[in-house]
Amino acid sequence: MSPKVILLFSGKRKSGKDFLTDHLQELLKDRCEILKISQPIKSHWARENNLNLNELLSDNEYKEQYRLDMIKWSEAMRDKDYGCFCKQACLNAADKPIWIVSDIRRKTDIQWFKETYKDIIKTIRICADDDTRRARGYQFKSGVDDVASECDLDDYTEWDLVINNGEGRQPLKEQLSSIISLISLS
Ligand SMILES: Nc1ncnc2c1ncn2[C@@H]1O[C@H](COP(=O)(O)OP(=O)(O)O)[C@@H](O)[C@H]1O
Ligand SMILES: C[C@@](O)(CCOP(=O)(O)OP(=O)(O)O)CC(=O)O
């Protein structure tokens, strides 16, 4: 069974990508699977450098120590094949009707998914103001917050849905129902 819908989520660090996609998964239960493009990157990095993969995958400070190096290595890999990590994430994914990709970062990520899975793609941008992100632990870092990893989709305008997850956000239930309304499994 191949997926019927693929939801691509994008947003800056601490905008709430994991928070919202984890809650979405609680709602959709076993109909969905969360895919992370950063998973193959982090797996490689953990293996090569003898690091704790679970810590790298968590939302705590641990991954921040390695983010800059992971960005540099993964950019070099993407220069050779822009879809390499998207492909790996999909190869490891379970057969579920809904795939939730929680960390789209580049226009080429969207391009790869649209080329590969055509019109079952929906794109969602999560926004949060800087004060809210800072309250969640964000601190600007040169080489991380001013490069493609965080900025390439800033000027993308073709989102199917934009969700405010900062100051003045709607209650979680409403945020989630706006996402659910994108899904039609006919
Ligand atoms: N709407 C929200 N309400 C409460 N806490 C939130 C909300 N959105 C995000 N957070 C918290 O902010 C932190 C960063 O969120 P996270 O989902 O890890 O961001 P990202 O994956 O975009 O870097 C986490 O501790 C998360 O629980
Ligand atoms: C090297 C990275 O894949 C690390 C991404 O780690 P996370 O996806 O865990 O980051 P946030 O959730 O936004 O905090 C970035 C990249 O450019 O591929």
From TrEMBL:
Q: Which UniProt keywords apply?
A: ATP-binding, Cholesterol biosynthesis, Cholesterol metabolism, Cytoplasm, Kinase, Lipid biosynthesis, Lipid metabolism, Nucleotide-binding, Steroid biosynthesis, Steroid metabolism, Sterol biosynthesis, Sterol metabolism, Transferase
Entry EC number(s):
2.7.4.2
> Per the annotation, which location comes first and is thus the protein's main one?
cytoplasm
Q: Where, subcellularly, is it found?
A: Cytoplasm, Cytosol
Q: What's a GO biological-process term for it?
A: isopentenyl diphosphate biosynthetic process, mevalonate pathway
Q: Does the keyword Ribosomal protein apply?
A: no
The keyword Transferase is assigned to this record: yes
Return the SUPFAM superfamilies for the record: P-loop containing nucleoside triphosphate hydrolases
Q: Which GO terms describe its cellular component?
A: cytosol
Q: Which class of enzymes does this protein belong to?
A: transferase
Q: Where does substrate bind?
A: 165
Binding positions (ATP): 12-18, 136, 175
Gene Ontology MF terms: ATP binding; phosphomevalonate kinase activity
Q: What is this protein called?
A: Phosphomevalonate kinase
From what organism does this protein derive? Galleria mellonella
- This protein's gene is called LOC113510630
